[in-house]
Amino acid sequence: MEESERTSIDPKRRADHLCVLVHGLWGTPAHLTYLAKALREKHSEDQLTILVAKNNSGTYTYDGIETGGERVTQEIETLLQELENDGTPVAKISVVGYSLGGLIARYAIGLLYSKGWFEKLQPVNFTTFATPHLGVRTPLRGYHNQLWNAFGSRTLSTSGRQLFTIDTFRDTKRPILSLLAEPNSIFIRALSLFPNRVLYANIINDRSVPYYTAAITSTDPFVDLDAVNIHHHPSYPKILDPENPVAPKSAQEVSSFYTRLASTSQTFLYRAPLYTVLMALIPVA
Fold first, then answer.
1. CA pair distance 204, 281, nearest whole angstrom
2. What is the mean pLDDT of residues 111-125?
3. How many other CB atoms sit within 10 Å of the CB of residue 46?
4. Which contiguous run of DSSP H or E holds residue 179?
5. From CA 256, how far away is CA 263, in angstroms rounded?
6. Distance (Å, rounded) from C-alpha 259 to C-alpha 95?
7. DSSP letter (8 states) at residue 152
8. Burial of 133 by CB count in 10 Å (0-12 exposed, 13-18 middle, 19+ buried)?
9. 64 burial class (0-12, 13-18, 19+ CB within 10 angstroms)?
10. Residue among 119, 98, 101 nearest 190 (CA)
11. Which residues are within 8 A (CB) of 162 and not within 5 positions of it... i.e. 6 or more apart?
């Protein structure tokens, strides 16, 4: 059985560390198979128990961050109880969220915190990949950005309204993303207990979760890659060096006006399929 589908308890397993993987919008556990296998290759079953959340699969991801978070919390609690009953209780927990799964994971750890689980468990790692922590509403001007902001939320039900921050969470009169970031909330208190908090953001070619929201930043030094030098991590060539990711090029290195013009044209052509999809979806949303 695939790691992403395994929920039964192996009596020979004595791992005291649970790692929870949470997929994103339209996702299924199969989308995290590669990650689960990579973790298993590095950590044996007597070192790490891997839970790939499955109760938010497919269209269930439309149901919103809080509903998704409640489902993941229930899955975690069920497995924790099973492990304890089996005589292999968990002492440590790590959580990994991809895209929308990162927001669902942030909600879930808040619920675990409020239920007192972190008095029994030691939080270790909290990691997100391409997660829209600031939502997906673009602050940029231009007709294509206005179309995205105006109509994008209509295609994704509750999750869409929350991602575009036009929702009102229960009786707070505030979007749920603002509550997840509230300093005194159970969500931030839970997150602060994880000593290792890491987020990964795509610097290019991510149409739905651009750099600023995945990296939680107000600036994007990668808007014009012709104007900067990229520094890759020495051990991981696909990842930038976190200590020195980027530096501006000298005047002699900066590309010419005509090169920039060609790049702008390519950007429009690159976005053309997105505009087409939006125009097709909006009438039926």
1. 25
2. 98
3. 13
4. helix 176-180
5. 11
6. 43
7. G
8. buried
9. buried
10. 119
11. 64, 65, 135, 169, 175, 176, 177
**Structure tokens that stand for 174 in this block:** 């505030």
What would the two tokens of residue 248 be? 């501006």
H or E segment to which residue 128 belongs: strand 122-129
Cα separation, 26 vs 58, whole angstroms: 5
Task: Map residue 8 onto helix, strand or coil.
Answer: coil
pLDDT value, residue 5: 45
On whether the CB atoms of residues 97 and 194 are closer than 8 A, the answer is no
**275 Cβ contact partners less than 8 Å away, ≥ 6 residues apart:** 144, 147
25 Cβ neighbours under 8 A, 6+ residues apart? 61, 99, 100, 156, 159
Structure confidence by residue, pLDDT tens digits, 252-274 = 666 554 455 555 555 555 566 66
Helix (H) or strand (E) holding 265: helix 257-281
Both tokens of 116, joined, read: 């007192």
112 within 8 A of 60, measured Cβ to Cβ: no
Q: Which amino acid is at 169?
A: F
- Would residue 185 show up in a list of annotated catalytic residues for this protein? no
Element (H, E) at 16: none
Alpha helices of 60-142 — where are they, by DSSP H? 65-85, 100-114
Q: Of the spans 3-17, 108-122, 197-211, which averages the highest pLDDT?
A: 108-122
Q: Which of 44, 57, 94, 99 is catalytic?
A: 99
Nearest CA to 232 out of 243, 245, 219 is that of: 245
Please state whether 198 falls in left (phi above 0), alpha (psi between -120 and 50) or beta.
Answer: beta
Q: Which amino acid, 135?
A: G
Single out the residue of 38, 10, 59, 71 nearest to residue 19, CA to CA: 38
Cα separation of the two ends of the chain: 38
